[in-house]
Specification:
single chain; alpha/beta; eight-stranded parallel barrel; two-stranded antiparallel sheet; 10 strands; binds 3-methyl-2-oxobutanoic acid
Length: 315
């Protein structure tokens, strides 16, 4: 398994929360993929266990997306997600990912109010979770904020096209950039984010031809979701591609597994075995010495103990 290609490009040593020393992916490694013309795959992660699985599989970038509002917390949109919730989940992902670059979404209205607010909340995110970068939605309107964040040392992943925090503005018009004005606006937004210092840009639900055009014009990696094959990288929501989220499967996702169906079957087996006394068996329980049990019973059966504990004995 390689991270960022040859060992020479693998990033610096990183001392994590538990004081382990490990090699982990940096934003420079992410740039190196594009420089080598090598496409990479990224995924969302929301907890320790899934982060461990993806990290072990060599996924270089894990996004703690505010999509957790839907797939983990059951909201209709990402709008209700709070900074505290993002911090809670990001801490878990960071504990599970020893090598992948962990990027955390800054949620709705935690960075749009002012540059100061963005600095404060991005700072909280990095300091309290150990993640290495944040993602913010928006193009030119957010570029000054991105610039300031990068200046103070916060790597930023941009996100344009369909930006889920504005779901109520977009309504059903999810694909962005189909007409001349919108298409041009997206190119300008992407260039503005690059100029502001973003280390990569997510392009969501943009026509594939336009996405290819943007990827060709940007020096930094363009990470597509529902934007075709010509992006420099692809990102998908964990629950969509592994078949965990049953409410719907977006057109841009493909199910590489049907984990919910596997769990359904396993739940049926579990309930069946518990209710028919097959599980747990002796193999799954600890045992004790019979003499000790006899002693305990004799002690408990004494009159003095029975008076002190009026609970009826069930044998
Ligand atoms: O929140 C999210 O999951 C995202 C994506 C880019 C998938 O923003």
């Amino acid at each position: 398994m390689t991270y960022g290609g040859s060992d020479a490009t693998v990033s610096t040593l990183f001392i994590d929360e538990t004081r382990h020393v490990s090699k982990s992916i940096t934003v420079q490694d992410i740039q190196a993929y594009k420089d080598r013309g090598e496409k990479f795959a990224a995924l969302t992660a929301y907890d320790y266990t899934s982060a461990q699985i993806l990290d072990r599989a060599g996924v270089p970038l894990l996004l703690v997306g505010d999509s957790l509002g839907m797939v983990v917390l059951g909201h209709d949109t990402t709008v209700p997600v709070t900074l505290d919730e993002m911090i809670h989940h990001t801490r878990a992902v960071v504990r599970g990912a020893t090598r992948s670059l962990v990027v955390a979404d800054l949620p709705f209205l935690s960075y749009q109010i002012s540059v100061e607010q963005a600095l404060e909340n991005a700072g909280r995110m990095l300091q309290q979770t150990g993640c290495r970068a944040v993602k913010v939605e928006g193009g030119r309107e957010i570029a000054a904020t991105v610039k300031r964040l990068v200046q103070v040392g916060v790597p930023v992943l941009g996100h344009i096209g369909y930006t889920p925090q504005s779901a109520h503005v977009f309504g059903r018009n999810r694909v962005q950039g189909r007409d001349f004005d919108q298409g041009l606006a997206l190119v300008r937004d992407a260039l503005a984010l690059e100029a502001a210092g973003a280390f990569a840009v997510v392009l969501e639900l943009v026509p594939r031809q336009l996405a290819g055009e943007i990827a060709a014009r940007l020096r930094i990696p363009v990470v597509g979701i529902g934007s075709g094959a010509e992006c420099d990288a692809e990102i998908q929501v964990f629950h969509d591609v592994f078949g965990l989220y049953q409410d719907f499967c977006p057109r841009h996702a493909k199910r590489f597994a049907n984990v919910a169906a596997t769990i359904d079957n396993a739940v049926r087996d579990y309930v069946g075995e518990v209710t028919t006394h097959v599980f747990p068996s002796e193999a799954q329980a600890a045992a004790m010495d019979t003499d000790t049990l006899v002693q305990i019973r004799a002690y408990l059966d004494q009159d003095s103990f029975q008076t002190a504990s009026p609970v009826p004995i069930r044998r």
